[in-house]
Amino acid sequence: MDSGAALSTKGIAARRTRRGPHTRKRILDASLHLFSERGFARTTVRDIAREAGITDAGIFYHFESKRDLLEALVEERGIVAGLQQLQRVSADLPLQETLLWMARGAINIMDENRDFLRLIMMEGLGGDDSALEQYHHLVDLWENALTAALQRYAEKGELSRNAPETMARQVIYLILMAFQDTLLGRHVSPKATPGERREALTEFASETLKRLLPNPPGTP
After folding, report:
1. Exposed end of the chain (fewer CB within 10 Å): N or C?
2. Has this prediction a pTM greater than 0.85?
3. What is the CATH topology of the domain spanning 3-65?
């Protein structure tokens, strides 16, 4: 191969490399828009390709299936990484402060992804297996993170040994139901800013957690 041909081949490869991440992002953006607008089951690969301005083959070059696309949206929106980060919390602070910090973190993650999570919940309630799988995956990650943190307090004697798993589920139900209410415009105005929504949810969680937690050692 002469030097001109080699340079040409390298140029094509470089353009493909540059276009790859950009095309992938276009596909994911188009998928999120169409899934949110039409629903996961009612959106076809051809619809996504048309929205992204590429061919069906272009979709399958990056993703094996619609299910693969949904998994990628969950991963790349930072939800999984955010929930996994919560699992690293130590037991250095008072229990109430730690739980409130974790609650605030979960509320921020959920509100940043409210349209996507609305999609997962609605499609899951409609019986879509892919959406249900992702819902279970995300809530399981959250529950595992809370349970791991609470177990550290149980080891310090601040909770009974059988409390962490039950309390983790109670905290999740508390925050998840309050979040669903905001999706439906209940208790928090649909016109509220993201900051106002998050502050209202955090305030509610804080007041409720005080009633849920046992009294600190040394208090009546």
Report:
1. C
2. no
3. Arc Repressor Mutant, subunit A (1.10.10)
- Answer whether 156's CB lies under 8 Å from 93's CB: no
Q: Which CATH number fits domain 77-212: 1.10.357, 2.60.40, 3.30.1360, 3.40.50?
A: 1.10.357
Q: What local confidence, expressed as pLDDT, does residue 46 receive?
A: 94
Which residues, 6+ apart, have CB-to-CB distance to 158 below 8 Å?
95, 214, 216, 217
User: Residue with structure tokens 């994911």?
Assistant: 28
pLDDT in tens, 69-92: 999 998 888 888 888 888 788 888
| CA torsion through residues 76, 32, 142, 187, sign | positive
Alpha helices in 113-193 (DSSP H): 114-125, 129-155, 163-183
Kindly tell me if the per-residue pLDDT of 218 is higher than 70: no
